[in-house]
Write a sequence for this structure.
């Protein structure tokens, strides 16, 4: 598995997002999912049905 180096500030920010027992992997996966969902919603544009 590849390894990456993180700045101390990034680690502090990730620590602030972690909840009971969550790993960094869990937090990063959740952030990526949120980013992808936002990207999809932006690609489809605003809902014009209302």
């Amino acid at each position: 598995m590849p390894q990456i180096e993180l700045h101390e500030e990034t680690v502090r920010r990730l620590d602030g997002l972690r909840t009971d027992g969550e790993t960094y992997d869990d937090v990063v996966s959740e952030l990526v999912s949120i980013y992808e969902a936002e990207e999809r919603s932006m690609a489809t544009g605003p809902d014009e049905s209302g």
